[in-house]
Amino acid sequence: MKQLRIHMASFHLHPILVFHYFIVLPCLATVPFKFRSSTHSALSQEATRTTRSNILKYQELPDFPNGTYLDRSSFPSDFKFGTLTLAVKHEGNSSHKVESIWDTYALVDGVVLDGTTPAQGGDQYNRYPEDIEYMVAMGVDAFRFSLAWTRIFPDRSGEPNAEAIAHYNDMIDKLVAEGIEPHVTLWSEDHPQALEDAYDGLLSPLFIDDFATYANVCFAEFGDRVKYWITFDEPNDYVGLAYASNQSPPGRCSSCDAKLGNCTKGNSSTEPYIVAHHILLAHAAAAKLYKDQYQDSQEGYIGISLWFKWYEPLNSTDEVDLASAKQAQNFYFGWFMDPLAFGDYPENMRTLVGARLPTFTEQEAIYLRESFDFVGINVVTASYVTSGTDEESCPTYFNDMNISITAYRDGEAIGEGENEYSVPWCIEKIVNYMRDVYGNPLVYITEIGWGISFTSDIQENLNDTERIQFYYSYLSTLSEAIRSSLSPNTPAPLLSGNLELNG
Ligand SMILES: *[C@@H]1O[C@H](CO)[C@@H](O)[C@H](O)[C@H]1NC(C)=O
Ligand SMILES: *[C@@H]1O[C@H](CO)[C@@H](O)[C@H](O)[C@H]1NC(C)=O
Ligand SMILES: *[C@@H]1O[C@H](CO)[C@@H](O)[C@H](O)[C@H]1NC(C)=O
Ligand SMILES: *[C@@H]1O[C@H](CO)[C@@H](O)[C@H](O)[C@H]1NC(C)=O
Ligand SMILES: *[C@@H]1O[C@H](CO)[C@@H](O)[C@H](O)[C@H]1NC(C)=O
Ligand SMILES: *[C@@H]1O[C@H](CO)[C@@H](O)[C@H](O)[C@H]1NC(C)=O
Ligand SMILES: *[C@@H]1O[C@H](CO)[C@@H](O)[C@H](O)[C@H]1NC(C)=O
């Protein structure tokens, strides 16, 4: 790609350093509580603090690979760069809040490798003014963070907690004063444990009203300044991990498939579908409330963020592999995106899951189709997909897909990495898929991240050459994709807006 020098005028401060800091920041507040695959890990508060205090001092930053360069002028001028935290991973401080489902789950033996709990997370709750200073220094346009339901609206009948509302008001005011757009997520695996105890949380339709009640408080209190709302953060990844493989709370699954998880209760053949259905309806209820009561006066936008991994047929000329890849796409992404775009689940899910897949009423289908101004995409990676086996297995969400996933083709890994691979070309595939399958809705990239391990040596983590290479390759691919979609003979640009990062 063309080598470009930093374009000073487009940054707020210290432009030369911005891009590197932009890459480093994710360590500041990001506690990767949940590593994909069955391991969990966390960065202690002490480590987070050391990282924080080093961010602005860290001068010896590695350069982009091979003399390449990428900067803000590689992107459209209205393209927004941001950074991201989630309450359950980054706020820490358990004072004046009730337990979330993660607080309970983290105490289960073996769930978090080093036993860290959300209460020991990055301490954003107390240190947000400092975090905002770093964001200003980095020159980000937007900060995507989530609110803790467990602080704002701790139980079903209680009043909203004035202290929590004052806290988020101050944080939002400080961001706005610095010219950083607050983008707010309402849920990230952290609804109150009390809802789990009262009615099994997401398994009950009662969740829908409770979520709307919580959302209503947030719109009313913060919507004068918050213009971007995300109801749920990657529920399409969460549901399988939480209700079919015991990798996220509440850790429910069937006993019939012990290789995926050992749970004391649950039903992996039915519960994932019920839970996804309720999440979609809760999203639609909150969106309807926002659109009916707030959008005109507050002039903001609402959407949902979905996890999007690209599934590539192992043999791209083989009919079965092509069908398997499509099946994977539908079970992970179409499961949520099809109801939003078309009002119903993908047809081949219906065929494979049968009566276990719930149905929407006509009215619900309409609400779903009207429920988003944008779709947030959390871009991850890609895998190869081939057909399932004929082997008899118990019906579960994961087995229903009837596919096999591999990271290798002809002995070669799909990208750099160990457990999650860096596959920059997945961005272009995802962008094209949204255009071709879903009719080009407005898409924001709400996360780009790579699950690589931290070491216990903070200095070593700060010398983050692999991650810099990762971001370079993803962002340059994205930049190319935007550029090529702007050429006169191709459809209108699909991507606009917002790029947000998570470590
Ligand atoms: C940098 O060069 C190495 C060696 O030629 C190559 O393997 C790598 O892909 C290059 N990286 C980029 C981003 O071009
Ligand atoms: C949480 O934050 C509050 C307000 O800053 C502080 O008074 C309290 O001591 C903190 N609690 C913990 C457990 O850190
Ligand atoms: C899951 O629920 C279905 C429908 O109620 C039932 O037929 C099946 O036996 C249950 N499976 C397990 C493993 O409990
Ligand atoms: C579940 O328990 C069985 C028997 O102890 C064990 O073989 C299996 O590895 C466990 N599964 C997981 C995912 O931990
Ligand atoms: C890919 O699939 C095609 C069509 O089934 C087949 O002819 C070809 O041999 C396969 N390629 C490999 C490498 O298996
Ligand atoms: C799963 O895929 C295999 C291989 O394509 C096929 O033989 C089998 O019939 C499929 N099972 C179901 C339930 O569709
Ligand atoms: C940073 O890492 C690179 C590659 O892993 C290494 O060559 C370099 O010496 C390290 N720099 C510092 C300051 O540790």
Name some characteristics of this structure.
single chain, alpha/beta, TIM Barrel, 19 helices, 13 strands, 42% helix, globular, disordered N terminus, disordered C terminus
Helix/strand layout:
Layout: H1 15-29, H2 45-55, E1 80-84, H3 87-90, H4 101-105, H5 124-138, E2 142-146, H6 149-152, H7 162-177, E3 181-187, H8 193-199, H9 206-222, E4 228-233, H10 235-243, H11 271-293, H12 295-298, E5 301-313, H13 319-342, H14 347-353, H15 362-369, E6 374-387, H16 397-400, E7 403-406, E8 408-409, E9 412-413, E10 416-417, E11 421-422, H17 426-438, E12 443-448, H18 458-462, H19 465-485, E13 495-501
Parallel strand pairs: 1-2, 1-13, 2-3, 3-4, 4-5, 5-6, 6-12, 12-13
Antiparallel strand pairs: 6-7, 8-9, 10-11
The protein binds 2-acetamido-2-deoxy-beta-D-glucopyranose (NAG) (7 copies).
One 2-acetamido-2-deoxy-beta-D-glucopyranose binds at residues 254, 256, 267, 269-270.
